[in-house]
Design brief:
Blueprint lengths: L14 E3 L3 E4 L5 E5 L2 E3 L8 H13 L3 H11 L4 H12 L6 E5 L16 E6 L2 H11 L5 E5 L12 E7 L8 H11 E12 L15 H8 L8 E7 L2 E7 L6
Parallel strand pairs: 4-7, 5-6, 5-8, 6-7, 8-9
Antiparallel strand pairs: 1-2, 2-3, 3-4, 9-11, 10-11
Length: 249
């Protein structure tokens, strides 16, 4: 499959590849390719809150995988149950374009991406993406982008599936994130994610629980007349799925 070429997240124009960088023909910004990861944040400013998140996750990247397992299990959701639900959803993703926002290290989802799919991972932390690169290897149709979720470097309605796994717990502006996800998702696409909705017994990550009502409010950007929202909880973990229901167009 042909990988998507990223768009300029500043002006949404096509980028041209020049060796180890991408250049925007309109604004002239140059986005370097570093160890297989496109670094958009060299040329784009982050807010103070985003800079704090970036620094925090850069620091915890080496221990993130263990921390996320401990977090999930501490909230009465067995890790085997959590991963089984992810794997079952991804079993339907063959041949699809998949965008994973706040992908972190791509753990554990990277192991469940079908070989016929395109996986696009976006995260604010370059260190996290370095670990994702190791997990995904060189044989997968994958691309990794160092960018915040509020400026996804893709055109409108081009993604079949969007993932946000524990990502809304850390996004500084969940409403803006959901709006941007809605923009890039195809009209018949699917949005699947997880959040934790109870405080863990100890702090494993610099993420905060979200109220279920806030999750529904954020996802209301997907018009209920056109989209169906399904939610299910296991312990302190909420699984959500936004998709077109039968008979809606």
């Amino acid at each position: 499959m042909q990988l998507f070429s990223p768009f300029c997240p500043s002006c949404r124009e096509n980028l041209s590849r020049n060796g180890d960088s991408f250049t925007c023909s309109k604004c002239g910004r140059v986005y370097p390719l570093k160890n297989g990861v496109v670094d958009f944040l060299t040329s784009l400013p982050l807010s103070d809150v985003q800079q704090v998140a970036q620094t925090t996750f850069n620091a915890i990247a080496p221990s993130y995988d263990n921390a996320i397992v401990r977090l999930v299990e501490s909230l009465s959701c067995p890790w085997s149950t959590y991963t089984a639900r992810l794997e079952a959803f991804m079993a339907q993703a063959g041949g699809k374009v998949i965008l994973d926002v706040g992908c972190g290290t791509a753990f554990p989802i990277g192991s469940f991406v079908p070989p016929t799919s395109i996986y696009l991972g976006a995260d604010i932390s370059g260190e996290m993406l370095g670990h994702a690169k190791m997990l995904l290897g060189d044989n997968l149709n994958s691309a990794l982008w160092n960018i915040d979720v509020e400026r996804i470097p893709l055109p409108d309605t081009c993604v079949d599936i969007c993932l946000a796994l524990m990502a809304f717990n850390v996004f500084p502006n969940p409403h803006k994130a959901a709006t941007e996800i809605h923009r890039v998702l195809k009209k018949d696409g699917s949005f699947f994610g997880t959040v934790f909705i109870q405080p863990p017994p100890e702090e494993f990550l610099s993420e905060k629980p979200l109220e279920p009502g806030l999750v529904r409010e954020v996802l209301a950007v997907f018009d209920p007349a056109l989209w169906e929202l399904s939610v299910e909880t296991q312990g302190g973990i909420l699984f959500f799925h936004v998709h077109k229901s039968a008979g809606r167009s």
